């Protein structure tokens, strides 16, 4: 994560030197894609250094998913196949599967060529390849590819969106930006480099509060649940077998929980004492319960490391804002433009 952050900081430094503005959403999408491919699969996509079809395809496919969710007729495959988006969907899936299958093939071949297993830190793909069930059977290539798909699509778009809104909201609240920078400076005092360690993450208390408050205000992918029994909501019964979408944005803006100022950015909402007072289902950026997001710790590490690395070196100001719109998460309607300034 620190190595991918190095690439990001270098890009932002060049923009700051030249006075060039930065397309925030696009920059964060390339960054989080680089993180996922490098951390989960040890794959060098170089998608931060040049235009990447991988990032474009991921964005395209998540857009089609949102289109199908919010266009009920498109949930029927025979109708979707007649739509203008079907060919792009199939082409994108074919491209992503090709990359994934090549990565899996090369890793399997590497294991086959090793006479003795090499001791190393396992990435996500290693874990999938080495896992065995009680009968000693491993996962098939298709099963591994399906898991890889879930990790890529759940980990890139969501983290990119969270970082986009975080930097945008910090640009709109310079006084909070200063507080974050002061905390980061205390953590890094006397250091020779800016690499973030695991121990540092626990010290970034106020930075984490700002990140969580940003995720409250601009919620991400809504979780879906299949009802195993009837659900009564205010006298209306939803029958067993129904698919239910939980509208997280409304949960995070419930005035009974968050107050009448729920549209205001207030990181103090996430002070420890206040968090302990609230119901555990009041804040669910990673869903909740037994089917919550298994990648939430990974995602929070990405967000905190990125915030620390960027605000250690830069301040940000808003050049062009955008209204949020709700698709399969909260997205900017148009590109948000920021300027990064050397501190």
- Structural category: mainly alpha
State the total count of DSSP E strands: 9
Instruction: Categorize the overall geometry.
Output: globular
Q: What amount of the residues lies in strands? A: 5-15%
Q: What's the total helix number? A: 15
Helix content: 55-70%
Largest sheet: 3 strands, antiparallel
Distance between the termini: 22 Å
Low-confidence runs of at least 5 consecutive residues: none
Mean pLDDT: 91
- Give the SSE order as H and E letters: HEHHHHHHHHHHEEEEHHHHEEEE
Return Rg in Å: 21 Å
Strand order across the largest sheet = 1-9-6
Model description:
The chain is mainly alpha-helical and 343 residues long. It is built from 15 helices and nine strands. The chain has helices spanning 2-18, 24-41, 53-70, 77-80, 86-113, 124-130, 141-155, 157-172, 174-188, 198-203, 205-217, 248-251, 255-258, 272-277, 296-313; strands at residues 22-23, 224-226, 231-233, 236-238, 243-245, 314-320, 324-326, 330-332, 337-342. The strands form four sheets. Strands 1-9-6 form a three-stranded antiparallel beta sheet. It is globular and about 55 Å long.
């Amino acid at each position: 994560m620190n190595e991918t952050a190095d690439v990001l900081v270098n890009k932002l430094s060049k923009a700051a030197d030249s006075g060039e503005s930065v397309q925030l959403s696009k920059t964060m999408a390339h960054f989080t894609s680089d993180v996922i491919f490098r951390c989960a699969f040890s794959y060098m996509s170089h998608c931060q250094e040049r235009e990447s079809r991988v990032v474009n395809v991921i964005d395209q496919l998540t857009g089609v998913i949102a289109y199908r969710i919010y266009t009920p007729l498109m949930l029927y495959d025979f109708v979707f196949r007649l739509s203008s988006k079907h060919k792009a969907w199939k082409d994108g899936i074919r491209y992503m599967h090709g990359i994934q299958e090549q990565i899996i093939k090369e890793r399997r071949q590497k294991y086959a060529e090793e006479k003795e297993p090499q001791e190393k830190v396992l990435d996500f793909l290693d874990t999938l390849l080495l896992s065995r069930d009680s009968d000693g059977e491993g996962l098939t290539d298709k099963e591994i590819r399906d898991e890889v798909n879930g990790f890529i699509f759940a980990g890139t778009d969501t983290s990119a969106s969270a970082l986009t809104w975080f930097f945008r909201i910090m640009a709109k609240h310079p006084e909070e930006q200063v507080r974050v920078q002061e905390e980061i400076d205390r953590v890094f005092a006397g250091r020779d480099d800016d690499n973030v360690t695991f121990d540092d993450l626990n010290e970034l208390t106020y930075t984490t509060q700002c990140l969580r408050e940003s995720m409250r205000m601009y919620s991400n992918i809504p979780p879906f649940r299949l009802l195993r029994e009837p659900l009564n909501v205010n006298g209306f019964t939803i029958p067993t077998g129904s698919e239910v979408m939980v509208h997280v944005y409304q949960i995070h803006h419930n005035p009974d929980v968050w107050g009448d100022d729920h549209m205001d950015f207030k990181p103090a909402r996430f002070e420890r004492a206040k968090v302990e007072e609230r119901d555990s289902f009041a804040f669910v950026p990673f869903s909740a319960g037994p089917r919550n997001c298994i990648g939430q710790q990974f995602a929070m590490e990405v967000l905190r490391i990125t915030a620390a690395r960027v605000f250690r070196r830069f301040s940000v100001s808003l050049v062009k804002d955008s209204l949020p719109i709700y698709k399969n998460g909260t997205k900017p309607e148009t590109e948000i433009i920021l300027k990064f300034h050397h501190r």
